[in-house]
Amino acid sequence: MKKVILIGEIGCGKTTFVQSLKEIDMEYKKTQTMEYYENVIDTPGEYLENRRYYNALIVSSYDCDVIGLVQDSSSKKCSFPPSFASIFAKPVIGIITKIDKESKDLEYATACLKLAGVKEIFKVSAVEKVGIDQFKDYLK
Prior knowledge:
Blueprint: E1 4-8, H1 14-21, E2 35-36, E3 40-42, H2 46-49, H3 54-61, E4 66-72, E5 92-97, H4 106-116, E6 120-123, H5 132-139
Parallel strand pairs: 1-3, 1-4, 4-5, 5-6
Antiparallel strand pairs: 2-3
């Protein structure tokens, strides 16, 4: 099974996605430090939002098979710099979260991830369990 590290801004849905993926009871919690699961690393949003932590993301990604850039479909902010994916020596995928929200903008989220250098994109709703099985299949 592939191991993935999830990188995205604060509140983009990384932890909720992990809870849905791992079938853990969903409860809001702010990720304060990297959290390690069997095949997933959940990172704090501050690690993306503060360039000083980029090295921590790069070093932690070494143990993974794939890098997952997470973009909230309801956000009008793209935290990924252009070609961000190129700093990793692994395949980089995109994950668009919160696709069940009324305020979603899938075109913007897709454009943001493509600008960051992502080729393959998964669209998920952790709450509605949409796209979770497809992502699990990808990790197999």
